[in-house]
Design goal:
This protein has about 210 residues and is α/β, with parallel strands linked by helices. It has one domain (about 5-210): Glutaredoxin (3-Layer(aba) Sandwich). Helix content is about 45%, strand content about 20%. It is built from 10 helices and 9 strands. The protein has helices spanning about 5-15, 20-35, 65-70, 85-95, 95-100, 115-125, 140-145, 155-160, 165-170, 205-210; strands at about 55, 60-65, 75, 105-110, 130-135, 145-150, 175, 180-185, 190-195. The strands form 3 sheets. It has a 5-stranded mixed beta sheet with strand order 5-4-3-8-9. Strand 4 (about 105-110), helix 6 (about 115-125) and strand 5 form a beta-alpha-beta unit. Helix 1 (about 5-15) packs antiparallel against helix 4 (about 85-95). The longest helix is centred in the N-terminal third of the chain and has 17 residues, at about 20-35.
Length: about 210
Amino acid sequence: MSLAAQLNAVQSGFEANAPAHMKAPIIKANQEFQRTYDPSKAIQVGDTLPSFKLSNAVGKEVTLAELLSNGPLLITFYRGEWCPFCNLALAALQKHIEELRAKGVTLIAISPELPSQSLSTSEKNNLKFQVLSDVQNKLAKQLGILFAQPEYLRPVFETFGHDFKARNGDASLEVPLPASFLVGKDGVVRQSFVNPDWTKRLEPSVALEWVDGL
């Protein structure tokens, strides 16, 4: 089953089974953001990725320069361990990790969650690639892929038991868009997937096509 089919199944289940008072604000927020997001604000193919230093799941700082020293990067941003769409996307990429490595490409995932939460994500999904913490979404903001979720979603998240302050280190509801970038060894963005609809993700088969085109 394709990743898209899995994501659609989750969304269909949510729409069919979620209580109306929770479903309505979530759907509203997604639709509003899709209408208002300006994709021209995001980093574009041909741009150079800004340098960064982020902590991995065990708290070790990792720099962009260090990562690029090993070759091209496939970077995927996700909202957090609490997001079922994100977990499906990470698991789908995991299935192709050896193919990516064989082609000399390093896969990394980035979220605003604290390193302790990233470790939980790695353990839960048995991931074989680095999960980095973009605390306060500083890199996501630089890349123009930030979604400041509306305050009317806070009661919904609280009902689900999602404590953003505990997960992210602050009470902000800001999260990155579903976004993936193929970055050449020179730090230049070669391919980009940025979608304001959080139910959509880059298909792994497309990522592999990107890599083949390097």
